[in-house]
Design brief:
The structure is a homotetramer. Chain A contains eleven helices and 18 strands. Chain A is of the alpha/beta class. The first copy, chain A, has two domains: 186 residues, Medium-chain alcohol dehydrogenases, catalytic domain (Quinone Oxidoreductase, Chain A, domain 1), CATH 3.90.180.10; 144 residues, 3-Layer(aba) Sandwich (Rossmann fold). Chain A is globular, with a radius of gyration of 20 Å. The two termini of chain A are 22 Å apart. Strand 15 of chain C pairs antiparallel with strand 15 of chain D, so a sheet runs across the interface.
C-alpha cells in the first residue's frame, strides 16, 4: 500500500502531498506508523529555503512518535532491548554520527561530527521515507530508537518534541541548578522547555522574555516566575527589568532561545558579571549583530557557551526527566492545535504568524 | 626629601614631573623605592582619557618592582613572612578587593568586586604616591607584597609586568595544555606572554598574529612556532592561514589579546568547532563589532571565556612559572628600551607608535 | 543582667549551666538574643572530647537564630545592609577565614584556611559568649550576619541548621542535577537535607540509606523516593538493592553523610562506573576502613569528592533555596523536639541514642 | 608461511612459541609485521593468571608497532586516510568499544564500555593473531590504526608504549599544568611517562617516588626534579620529604602509578588540602588497604580521580606530544633491553625482578 507524505518540493514552494511506495525493509530497519510529528520553526525555515545543504524534495519532521509497523529481522532499542511490532517509540533524529572521526573521538564533540544526518532536515525524500510528515517513517539500521518511558503518553512526548532535548542540552551546558536566577530569551518551544527544565533543576527564579502573550501564558504554566513581553518593551527596558528582578545584578545564567540575532547583545547585558550566557537559538543564519566586546564580554568576565545539536544523552535524559515530572508540569499545554497531514501548510503559516505555540501533525489522522 | 613623580594632569594632557612630600607611613604601610615600572598600552589609554572613572591627576604605573625603603612597624609579604628594609619586591596592583561582598564570596569572582582599586589606574595622585611612575610608591596597609622568587632579577619581573599575570589568567581560563593548538591574537606584551605561557604549558603549536615585525620576532623567541603579520594580510587570509596550520580545523584555543574589536569575529572564525575562545584584550571600550551568532557561535558550539583582571593567584603563580623557566625563555627580550622618568612622554609615544615592544621606566634613573 | 549558658566543662563531662557577665559590645559587634540553637551529632562528639583542638570549657551551638538585642555602633549584614535592634537573623558560624593566606587566595579553598574559627566548636567559653547554647550570643565584628529571607520563620531556619548548608555544599560538589540517580548514605540531618536538596535539584531518584525508621520516614517526607534501613540489611544487600533501583548500574552520585567509616567501601560499591562519590560525613576521626583500590576506585573510574566545611555561599544559597521551596518541603518535620537550656544533657542523650531526628534548644525558653 | 607467536598457554605456565597459520584477511582487515611489542607489568600479571576473564591460551602484547604486510581491500587509518603496504603504524589496543551503549553514549565514559576488547589481554589466541608477541598481528576491521607522527621512530613509539597514553589520561584527569607541584608514585613505565608529561605540561616541580635506582635515574632524565627511593625510606619519611619539597603543604596533584595498594594512604597524605589525587596504577586486584576517611579524605577536602583505560584521544594526543617534544625528552631511555621472541620468559622475569626499566620484544628479530 503506498504511503502518503507531505513534501516541500523545493525552497519557497508550498507543501504538497505525495505518494511513495511502501518500503521494503533491509535487515535492521524498522517501519514506523507515525502517530505525531511536529511543525517547528526550523520547518518554516526549511520551507523558505533558509538552511544550506538541504536536499529537496524534503519530507520534514525530525522528532516523531509512532508505533512499530514492521521490523527487518531482530532490532533493538538504543540500549539493546529487542523491539516488537506494535510498540510505541520515538527515535533520535540524528543518524550516522560516525563515532570514528576526529570530532567524535578526539574532540569528543559528536554534535559537530561532519557525517551526521538528520531525519526531516538533511535526508531528502529521494532517499526514502526519512521525515515524520508521512504516514510511515523508515528507520534505517542503527537509528537510535527509544521506547516511551513508563507512564508517558505519545502526546506528552511530542509536546516535548525537538525542543525538549535541545533545551536539555542548553540547561546542561549552562549548569543551571539550585539558587540560580535564570533568564530565558524566547518563548518558542525551546524557550518554553528551557524554562520548564530550569524550574525543575531548582532554579531560584525563571524569567521568560518573549511574545505573543499566548506563549507567555504557557511559560507561566510551565514554571516561569516572571515573563516580559517584547511587544511592549525596548531592549533597555527589558535589561532594566531583569536587573530589577535580580537584585540589580542580572541573571546568573541567561539562555538565548530566540533565534533573533538582536537578542545576543541584549542577553549579554542581562547577565551578571561572571555569569553564563548560553546561545542555543541561532540555528539559522539571520545575519550579523553588533556587540561591544569591552562592555559585553571582557569587562563582564562572561562565559558564553554556544550549543549545537543534541546527542542521544540529551534525548534519553530529557525523556527520563519528563517521566519523572510527568504530573508536575503541564507538558501538553504547549500544543495549541493538531493538524492532519493535508493541513501542513496551515500549520506552517500558523507557526510563522505566531498564532500557535506548538503545532502537531497527525499523519494518520487526528483523533 | 620630596618625591618626584610623573603625572598625567588631566585627560589628553602631556605627562609632567611633579614633586610630592615624602609620605609619613601609617602602621602597616611600606615605602618602596621604585626600580622599574612599565609604560603599557593601558597607560596610553589613560593619557588619552579613554577609561571611565579614573581620578586625575594620576601617577600611572600599576605593576612595579622596588626595594623597601621604609616600613610602618612590622609588615609581612602576602603569605605572612616579615619584610625588611632593603628587600626587592613587587606587589599586586589590585587593592581593596573586599572579600566580603556578594561578588567576592557568593559568585567567587573577586576580579569583579566593586570595591577593588588599582595602583596607577583608579587611585589618583591626590590620594598619595599610588602609582609606579614615581621615585617612591606608598604601599597601603594590606597591599599584597611579593618577594621575587629566588633567582629572578628585577629586570625579569618587570619584563613580565602586568602582561604576565594577565596572560596567565587567560591561559588558565583557556585550560591550555598538552596537544592543544593555540592561536594568540595580538603581539603586545599580553599576547607575547600568553604565547610564552602556552608554550610552557605544553601546547602543540603556538601561532601569534600581530605586528609590527619587531614584535613578531620577539614572539618567535618567546616560543611561537609560527607568526602571521596583520600588515600584509586580510582577515580572510589569516583565518585561512590558521586553518592551514591546524589540519583544516582551526585552533583548539584562541586567545584574543589585541584590544581591537575587529579581532573578535576573526578569532571566532579561527577557532575550531567546539573550541575555546578567550577574550582578554578588550580592556578599553573601542566600540562595537559585528559578529554572526549563527556561524560564529551557535553552529560552532563554541566556548567564549571573557577574562577580567587578575587576583593574587595569577601574579603569584606567574612569578613561580617565570622562576621555574627562568633560563628557558628569554623573558627580558620583550624590553625594547629603558626610560628615565622625564622621558615618560617619549615612552608613551613609542608605545603608541609601535616603535617598541615594551617600554620600562626607571624612576630613580636607568643604569 | 548576667547571661546563662550551657557549658561542656571538659571532655566527657556533663553539660552544666553557667552564668556569664553581660558582655560589653566593642564597635562592630552585635549581641543576639538566642531563639533557637541546635544539638547536633558534632555536639555529641564534643561532649565526648572526640575532636582535637577544642578549647574547653565550651558553649556549643554553631548554627543559631536570634533577635538582635544590641549593636555596637552601625553594623551591616553580610552584604552591607544596616541592621537594627529587633531583627531576626542567623550568622555564619565560621569566622576569621582570613582571605589572605595561600589557601584562601591561591588554592581558593577557604574552608581549609588555617585561621578560621567556628562558633560553638573552636571558640571556647573563656573567649566569650561564642556558642549558641546561651541566652545571648556575642557576634564579633565581621561575623557574617544573614537576615532570614522573606517568608522564612526562625523555626524553618533552625530546621535547616548546620545540616542544610553542609548538604548544599555536598550537592553542589556532586553536581547533582536533572536525570541523576542519587543515593544518600545516612539519615541524620545532613543526609536528610542532602536528600531534600537532591530532590529539589531535579534528581531522577533519591534513595536514602539509614536508620532508625523515624528518620527514614522523615526522609520520605523530605523527598526520598526510596529508603533502605541499615537495621535489617547487610552491606551486600544494600549494594544489591541500590543496583536493583538503578537499572543494575548503581547510583550516578552517592553522597556519604553517615559519619561511619564502614559506609565508604559500601558507598563506593553502590556508585556506578564513572560516577561521583561525595564524602561529607566523616567529620570526626572514627578510625580506618579497608577499601579495595582496584575494584572500588581504579576499575570504576570513579570521582571521589571529599567536602570540608562551608563558606558564606553555601549558607546564603541554602537559605535562598529554602525560601524558594518553603512550602514544597516540610522542612520543620526534621525537628523531633524542642528543649530548654537545662535539658541540654537530655538532648545530647536523645541524639546519641537516635531517639530524635533533630533536637533544637530554646535558650530563652520554648514556646 | 606460518606465523610464530609467543603464547601463555594457561595461568602460571611459562611462555612457549607456537606456530599459527598465516591468516586470510577479511575485507577491512590489516596484517601487521610486528617490529616491536612490549613486556609490561600487566603481562607479568597475565602470566600469573591474576586478571579475571582472560581467555588462555593468550598471545600477549597490547601496544605494538609494525609495518603493514597486507591489507584486506582499502583500509584507512583512524582518521580516514588510506593506508598502504609498507607503512609503519601503531594501533589502539582497545577494540569493539561499541559507541552505542549507555556507558558510551549517556555516561560518555567509553573506557567503561562493557563491549570493549583488548589486544593481548582479553582476546585469546584461539581467536587469532590478536596480540603483539607474534611475528604478525591481525588487525580486525575497525581497529584504529595510527601512522607514526612525522619524525618519530618506531623505537620512540614503543618506548612510550602502553604507558604513555595511560599516563596521558592520568595527567589530563589531574589537570596538571603551570605552577603545579606534582608527585608521581611509582617509577615503572606509567610513572615515568607521567613524570615526563607533567614536566612537559609545565609543572612547577615533579617528584617521583619509586625504586630501584636505575628507574629513578631514568626518572631524572625524563624530567623529575626530585626522586625519593622507597627502598631506604618509610612511608612517614616519604610523606615528610614531599612536604619539605612543597613548602609544607604537600603536592597539588599526586598521581598514583605504583600498583601497590599501600601507596594509596601514603599518597593521600602527600597531597595538600583541596588537592587532587589521581589513581591510575591499580590495574590488578592486589587486595585491600586501610585508609582513614576523616584525615585522608573529608578533612582534606580532596578530589580523588580514579582513571581506567584509554581511548583513542589519549593515544593520538600522546603521540602528538611525543612528536612535539621528540628531542626535548630522551624517550628511548626507558628501554633497558630488546629481546627476541624466544626470550619472552627472560623478559618477564627481568620485569618482575625489577632488573629492567622497560623490556621490548622484537618478534621478527632484534637489529
Amino acid at each position: 500500500m503506498p504511503v502518503t507524505a507531505a513534501v516541500i518540493p523545493a525552497p519557497g514552494q508550498a507543501v504538497e502531498l505525495r505518494q511513495f511506495p511502501d518500503p521494503v525493509l533491509e535487515p535492521g530497519a524498522v517501519l514506523l506508523r507515525t502517530l505525531y510529528t511536529e511543525v517547528c520553526g526550523t520547518d518554516v525555515h526549511l520551507q523558505h529555503g533558509r538552511l544550506p545543504g538541504v536536499p529537496y524534495p524534503l519530507i520534514p519532521g525530525h522528532i516523531n512518535v509512532g508505533t512499530i509497523a514492521a521490523i527487518g529481522g531482530e532490532v533493538t532499542d538504543a540500549f539493546g532491548s529487542t523491539l516488537a511490532v506494535g510498540e510505541t517509540v520515538t527515535f533520535l533524529d540524528v543518524h550516522e554520527t560516525c563515532h570514528h572521526c576526529w570530532y567524535c573521538l578526539v574532540a569528543k564533540a559528536s554534535t559537530r561530527c561532519p557525517h551526521r544526518r538528520v531525519y526531516g532536515i538533511t535526508y531528502g525524500a529521494d532517499e526514502g521515507l526519512l521525515g515524520g510528515w508521512s504516514e510511515a517513517i523508515y528507520l534505517k539500521p542503527g537509528v537510535k530508537i527509544l521506547r516511551l518511558p513508563e507512564g508517558l503518553t505519545a502526546e506528552q512526548v511530542i509536546a516535548g518534541g525537538c525542543a525538549l532535548p535541545t533545551a536539555f542540552h542548553a540547561v546542561e551546558r549552562g549548569q543551571v541548578g539550585l539558587a540560580d536566577h535564570v533568564v530565558v530569551q524566547g518563548s518558542g518551544p525551546v524557550g518554553l522547555m528551557a524554562a520548564a527544565l530550569a524550574r525543575l533543576a531548582g532554579a531560584q527564579q525563571v524569567i521568560v522574555i518573549g511574545a505573543p502573550n499566548i506563549r507567555l501564558e504557557v511559560a507561566r504554566r510551565l514554571g516561569a516566575d516572571a515573563v516580559i513581553s517584547i511587544e511592549a518593551t525596548t531592549p533597555e527596558k527589558r535589561v532594566a527589568a531583569v536587573r530589577d528582578l535580580t537584585g540589580g545584578r542580572g541573571a546568573d545564567i541567561t539562555i538565548e532561545a530566540s533565534g533573533n540575532p538582536q537578542a545576543i547583545p541584549e542577553g549579554l547585558q542581562m547577565t551578571r558579571d561572571a555569569g553564563v550566557y548560553v546561545v542555543v537559538g541561532q540555528y539559522t543564519d539571520c545575519g550579523p549583530v553588533a556587540i561591544n566586546p569591552h562592555h559585553d564580554l571582557n569587562r563582564k568576565h562572561l562565559d558564553v557557551r554556544a550549543t549545537w545539536g543534541i546527542d542521544l544523552s540529551h534525548q534519553y535524559k530529557a525523556l527520563q526527566v519528563m517521566a519523572r515530572f510527568r504530573d508536575a508540569v503541564p507538558w501538553t499545554g504547549v500544543i495549541s492545535r493538531y493538524y492532519n497531514l493535508d493541513q501542513a501548510n496551515d500549520a506552517l503559516a500558523d507557526i510563522e504568524a505566531g498564532r500557535v505555540v506548538k503545532a502537531v501533525l497527525c499523519p494518520n489522522g487526528c483523533l
